[in-house]
Design a protein that fits this description.
Elements (H helix, E strand, L loop, with lengths): L11 H9 L1 H10 L4 E2 H7 L5 H13 L3 E6 L5 E6 L1 H20 L8
Antiparallel strand pairs: 1-3, 2-3
Length: about 110
């Protein structure tokens, strides 16, 4: 029997919660352009605090959507990149971002 996201005990809910988070969706979208360092992601995601970005990237990594690669250099260099699963998640999230950008004027709160 397939998972049912409407069922209270469905494990899909954790993934839905992660992907529905605005910072997760935006971080994944930013990584579509290729591997990026923390500072680059922080600049791209205007308004995110370092702490929230760190927590977001850790959750995405824990769920197999993002990889974190540490380079043994001085100073230490860390890059984040999408996994194949993360790339798959980007397609529907990109549609959602595009839809929101195209329709923001239709929302009463945006007026």
């Amino acid at each position: 029997m397939p998972d049912d996201v409407y069922a209270a005990c469905c494990p899909c809910r954790d993934m839905l919660d992660l992907l529905a988070n605005k910072w997760s969706a935006l971080a994944l979208g930013a990584l579509e352009d290729g591997p990026q360092r923390f500072g680059s992601l922080r600049s791209r995601l205007q308004g995110i605090s370092p702490k929230v970005l760190t927590v977001t990237l850790r959750k995405l990594e824990e769920h197999g959507l993002v990889t974190r690669k540490v380079f043994a250099e001085v100073p230490l260099r860390v890059e984040y990149d999408l996994t194949p699963l993360g790339r798959d998640a980007c397609a529907p999230l990109a549609h959602l971002r595009t839809w929101v950008e195209s329709n923001i004027h239709r929302f009463p709160a945006a007026a």
